[in-house]
Amino acid sequence: xxxxxxxxxxxxxxxxxxxxxxxxxxxxxxxxxxxxxxxxxxxxxxxxxxxxxxxxxxxxxxxxxxxxxxxxxxxxxxxxxxxxxxxxxxxxxxxxxxxxxxxxxxxxxxxxxxxxxxxxxxxxxxxxxxxxxxxxxxxxxxxxxxxxxxxxxxxxxxxxxxxxxxxxxxxxxxxxxxxxxxxxxxxxxxxxxxxxxxxxxxxxxxxxxxxxxxxxxxxxxxxxxxxxxxxxxxxxxxxxxxxxxxxxxxxxxxxxxxxxxxxxxxxxxxxxxxxxxxxxxxxxxxx
Length: 287
Hints:
By secondary structure, the protein is α/β, with parallel strands linked by helices. The chain is 40% helix and 16% strand. Helix 1 links the parallel strand 3 (34-38) and strand 4.
């Protein structure tokens, strides 16, 4: 994708690097200890959801972010995506940074971050996970039913369904029902940012893999053995991934610290950015 056609998802323009014959959009700002932001997985996902921590944390840290393959300004090949692809991509991004990096990751992206941290523990310093999945939710590996649903969604019917799910009205409904606790926080600028990314050519291929269950990832055993300091941040009003799921992570690893942020749903970092940075900033700066 040419840089002059890139979506304005963050306040800096993306640079691109090649990975498996595809182009990955990467972003960087600030100086200091490295931090890598990893966005969630859904039809409207991209680094756009990380713009608040990107701007705020870059005042103190060297903040890196990137669009996962199939999303944002990265290439969107017509692949049958699997969790392993994203774990490999996060690992490649850590290797590009080349020094111990703090990971801030959201939802299913947090599950992939955990797996990448276990694969390259020396390249990860700590993890801040936002409403993570992988233990008790989206943790069943894909079976025959998932592949059947995937084939259905790859059909003309699936394309029509995707078009209906990604109208402006549908995107607003998704944000109001799942992403934000207060619908008043869905400003026209926010709505347009989420809408535009799910309307790019090829935007359909990765989300249908998510909807069919092909991107599920079980991290229970890996998370339990993870050596890194870990902070789990949860929105008090999250519905899709309700707060009670946080107990799964504490049971898996008792050293896990849980922080709840009021008046926030899944996109805690965007809906309550001051409260989010107030919790995550000191955690990242700790020795």
